[in-house]
């Protein structure tokens, strides 16, 4: 028996969240013709106790192209490649969760258990980079969902993509919260030698217990700092991203996180304020009610102050930073911290002049 609940209710049902998962619920996607609402008749906890543990399902994404273009002024690249849809890390705050509704799946548990991968991503990328009209500009890799999430250990798709980018000498910007990126340090170091890569590691908190409940299958905070150190030692440019910054939950750690990352080798730092678009508002308030009940109302009140009285503000120029006194304070704190630590405020300008279209097939010899 599976019990569903209204995703916007602030009071959770009695049954516990599945072990190792960020969301406890499976709210219906917004495009379905019907919506289900839970009703606790007193049997929910017993029924859910008999259910088997949730397993991750991997499905094929039959995409015909792999480069996605955007015109957003909020991000420093106009194209990206995402090997996966959905993310096993299970971060409850993930802004990509609502995208699962486009698949008629739930942004809740389905997002972190029903994953889609692109087995031909490297071949598609090779074809698109080789088109006569292609113009080189940095590609963002894994910016919607993590390219080094746990299933990457079995598929190896992200490494295949990096191999194509290295062959084409194509610049790439990376962001991850996974230590698995260390597997690909050989490729990243080769890209770095020609100024073709810029890496950011996301560190949300230094509190292991908070990280365990908020981002259950991501690397623990200390392990991410080790990853920063290893990338730095290999000559790979690396920075730290405090994302998301959540008022009254982890925002007090901004200085501690960036200072620790700087000591590990990060040379740049940034943050993104929590975004609660669409179904994410209900998922996050449910998580607060389960894990931070004493702070829940205060946290949501401060989020509203950052978002003009709402849970979310999707306007360009505001969605990443928020507005108001609290947003200004975050900006001042980061600016002063960067100055004190000697960290740059500018993203690295990657080399686009070295690009050469890849061969039509991997391993094909070049005549001239």
Task: Describe, in plain words, how this protein is organized in 3D.
With 368 residues, this protein is α/β, with parallel strands linked by helices. The protein has a domain at 57-266: pyruvate-formate lyase- activating enzyme. The protein has helices spanning 44-49, 109-113, 121-129, 152-155, 157-168, 185-192, 208-214, 221-233, 254-264, 280-291, 296-306, 325-341, and strands at 57-60, 67-69, 79-81, 84-85, 114-117, 139-141, 172-176, 197-202, 238-245, 269-273. The strands form two sheets. A seven-stranded mixed beta sheet has the order 2-3-6-7-8-9-10. α9 packs parallel to α12 (325-341). The longest helix has 17 residues, at 325-341. The radius of gyration is 21 Å and the shape is globular. It starts with 43 loop residues before the first helix and ends in a 27-residue tail after the last helix. Mean pLDDT is 90; it is low at 1-14.
List keywords for this structure.
368 residues, alpha/beta, pyruvate-formate lyase- activating enzyme, 7-stranded mixed β-sheet, 3-stranded mixed β-sheet, 12% strand, globular, disordered N terminus
Extract low-pLDDT stretches.
1-14
Integer-rounded radius of gyration: 21 Å
Which structural class should the secondary elements be placed in?
A: alpha/beta
Helix content: 25-40%
Please, what is the average pLDDT?
90
The strand line-up of the biggest sheet is 2-3-6-7-8-9-10
CATH architecture of the domain at 57-266: Alpha-Beta Horseshoe
Order of helices and strands: HEEEEHEHEHHEHEHHEHEHHH
Number of helices: 12
Give the N-to-C terminal Cα separation.
Answer: 65 Å
Give the CATH level 1 class of the domain at 57-266: Alpha Beta
Tell me the major beta sheet. 7 strands, mixed
CATH topology title of the domain at 57-266: pyruvate-formate lyase- activating enzyme
Shape verdict = globular
Share of residues in strands: 5-15%
Number of strands: 10
């Amino acid at each position: 028996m599976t019990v569903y609940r209204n995703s916007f209710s602030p009071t959770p049902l009695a049954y516990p969240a599945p072990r190792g998962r960020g969301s406890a619920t499976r709210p219906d996607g917004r495009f379905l013709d019907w919506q289900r609402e839970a009703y606790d008749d007193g049997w929910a906890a017993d029924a859910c106790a008999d259910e088997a543990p949730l397993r991750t399902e991997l499905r094929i994404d039959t995409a015909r192209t792999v480069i996605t273009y955007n015109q957003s002024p909020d991000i420093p690249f106009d194209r990206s490649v995402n090997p996966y849809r959905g993310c096993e890390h299970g971060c409850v705050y993930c802004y990509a969760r609502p995208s699962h509704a486009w698949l008629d799946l739930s942004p809740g548990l389905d997002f972190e258990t029903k994953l889609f991968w692109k087995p031909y991503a490297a071949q598609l990328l090779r074809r698109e980079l080789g088109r006569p009209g292609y113009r080189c500009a940095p590609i963002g890799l894994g910016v919607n969902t993590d390219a080094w999430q746990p299933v990457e250990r079995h598929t190896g798709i992200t490494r295949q993509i990096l191999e194509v980018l290295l062959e084409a000498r194509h610049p790439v910007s990376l962001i991850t919260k996974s230590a698995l990126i260390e597997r690909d340090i050989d490729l990243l170091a080769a890209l770095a030698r020609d100024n073709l890569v810029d890496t950011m590691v996301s560190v949300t908190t230094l509190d292991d217990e908070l990280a365990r409940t908020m981002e259950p299958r991501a690397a623990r905070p200390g392990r991410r700092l080790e990853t920063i150190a290893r990338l730095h030692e290999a000559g790979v440019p690396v920075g730290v991203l405090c994302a998301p910054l959540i008022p009254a939950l982890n925002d007090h750690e901004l200085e501690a996180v960036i200072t620790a990352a700087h000591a590990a080798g990060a040379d740049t730092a940034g943050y993104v304020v929590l975004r609660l678009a669409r179904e994410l508002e209900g998922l996050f308030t449910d998580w607060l009610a389960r894990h931070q009940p004493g702070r829940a109302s205060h946290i949501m009140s401060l989020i509203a102050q950052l978002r003009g009285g709402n849970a979310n503000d999707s306007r360009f120029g505001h969605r990443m930073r928020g507005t108001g006194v609290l947003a200004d304070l975050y900006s001042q704190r980061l600016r002063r911290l960067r100055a004190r630590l000697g960290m740059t405020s500018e993203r690295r300008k990657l080399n686009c002049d070295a690009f050469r279209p890849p061969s039509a097939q991997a391993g094909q010899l070049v005549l001239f």
